[in-house]
Amino acid sequence: MCSVILFDGECNFCNQSIQFIIQRDSVGYFQYASLQGVIGKKLLKQYNIDQTIDSIVLIDNGSSYVKSDAILNICKKLSGPWRIITIFLLIPKPIRNFFYEKFAGNRYKLFGKQTKCLLPPPKIRKRFLD
């Protein structure tokens, strides 16, 4: 079954993170859509997630995950040593999300915004829904 990762299409760090995931998603498990796109907005509405959310979102097997839960559940599916990061699920969600929000709140300052959309190679492009 495929999962969808919703990400901030304007954020350089978010776009780099998607490239990181693609390189480690050896079976092509994930599909991608920007939070700002038509499909992203439709999925947010379908899963009753605030349309103004400023977080990565994972839709997987009929469930939705945001913030640190999304990241850790994505890591479960990656090849290589990245699955070990799921040990952070043992840390209470409010603590994990506190640090997530601190970083996310500064990501534009640290990494900037996209000024143009880069097209992925055709092999990967079909996994982008917007």
Automatic annotation (TrEMBL):
Domain of life (superkingdom): Bacteria
InterPro entries assigned: DCC1-like, DCC_oxidoreductase
Cross-referenced Pfam families: DCC1-like
Protein name per UniProt: Thiol-disulfide oxidoreductase DCC family protein
